[in-house]
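Form 12-C: Joint structure prediction
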Amino acid sequence: DTAVSQTPKYLVTQMGNDKSIKCEQNLGHDTMYWYKQDSKKFLKIMFSYNNKELIINETVPNRFSPKSPDKAHLNLHINSLELGDSAVYFCASSQAPAVEKLFFGSGTQLSVL
Amino acid sequence: GENVEQHPSTLSVQEGDSAVIKCTYSDSASNYFPWYKQELGKGPQLIIDIRSNVGEKKDQRIAVTLNKTAKHFSLHITETQPEDSAVYFCAATPNNAGNMLTFGGGTRLMVKP
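Section 2 - Result
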């Protein structure tokens, strides 16, 4: 009964590969996000979707492409992985009127070798 | 845009002592200030938040204070317990940015039994 679940939890891959991370929330929220946490624990928003529509797209390389098939799912596809992409990626969701209150998944630790 | 700075980056206290974590923000339009706790291997979890029309808020052993004039806010944890050990993040968002949270760099709190 996990509220925000993302898979896989760990992802180890070679440079140049393409990989996807999946996220699902069962909270009935309208808004979903992807955050990146670097090795120094710094958390930065990457994307935000509201009812399957992109509303925030921070300065992220276009190798990163989010896809929201429905409002309960927000997947992240990464092309041509680079060493600097190694980080923990968190999915989160929230719901109006309290859109600021984020519910985070447990993270996907991506290691690019 | 908003810039949030958090201090200290690490904090070690003895069980039963108090812990204080401080944050400053740059955008005077910010009006929502949450605190998140991230335990090892998990995603951040909202523990308390405050809005700019309130100077202080308390929830059991945790409290948050806000000084809008000085643009800083603090998290206070009293009677610390080993299970309080985690990384704590402050964040801020302007009302007109909706769900665009800017996080501080995090504080690793260690409570020694």
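Section 3 - Comments
The interface with chain B takes residues 4, 31, 33, 40-45, 48, 55-56, 90, 92, 94, 99-107 of chain A (CB under 8 Å). The radius of gyration of chain A is 13 Å.
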